[in-house]
Amino acid sequence: MIRGNVSLVGVPTITITVAGKDWPAIIDTGFNGDLELPEVLRKEFTTRYVGRATASLAGGQAVEEDIFLIDFPFDGRTIQAEVTFVTGSQILIGTHLLREYALQVDFVNKTVCLDRA
């Protein structure tokens, strides 16, 4: 089970360890992919190029992105995940990565719980 919290502005977040460092990771239920990682983390993974995809963003924007396959440490195991790398510093976790989990977000108590089914 992974526990997290809801920020003061209502963002569900968990902490994950990547490359020996704890990183806040946003649970983005509007993102149906696996992961979006900061470009600075690319060197920590062996990447396998999958191809280009068009992502539809909020507000009707569309962007072309390179998609890579990586072995990603998550919840005590290593999983294969499709990832895009971005110039920002945030990690986004999408719904496809969570397909084996029950997600509970309690906005009143500001808690997040991911439980592997």
Walk me through this protein's architecture:
With 117 residues, the chain is an all-beta fold. It has a domain at 19-99: Acid Proteases (Cathepsin D, subunit A, domain 1, Beta Barrel), CATH 2.40.70. The chain has strands at residues 2-6, 12-18, 21-27, 35-38, 48-56, 62-74, 77-86, 91-93, 101-106, 111-116. It is globular, with a radius of gyration of 14 Å. The protein starts with a strand and ends with a strand.
The total beta strand count reads 10
* Portion in beta strands: over 45%
Mean pLDDT: 93
CATH homolog superfamily of the domain at 19-99: Acid Proteases
Profile the largest sheet. 10 strands, mixed
Uncertain runs: none
Class based on secondary structure composition and strand pairing: mainly beta
CATH architecture of the domain at 19-99: Beta Barrel
Helix-strand pattern, N to C?
EEEEEEEEEE
State the distance separating the first and last CA atoms.
10 Å
**CATH class value of the domain at 19-99:** Mainly Beta
Instruction: Give the helix level as a range of percent.
Output: under 10%
Note the overall shape: globular
Radius of gyration equals 14 Å
Write a brief structural summary.
With 117 residues, this protein is mainly beta. It has strands at residues 2-6, 12-18, 21-27, 35-38, 48-56, 62-74, 77-86, 91-93, 101-106, 111-116.
Topology:
Layout: E1 2-6, E2 12-18, E3 21-27, E4 35-38, E5 48-56, E6 62-74, E7 77-86, E8 91-93, E9 101-106, E10 111-116
Features:
117 residues, mainly beta, Cathepsin D, subunit A, domain 1, globular
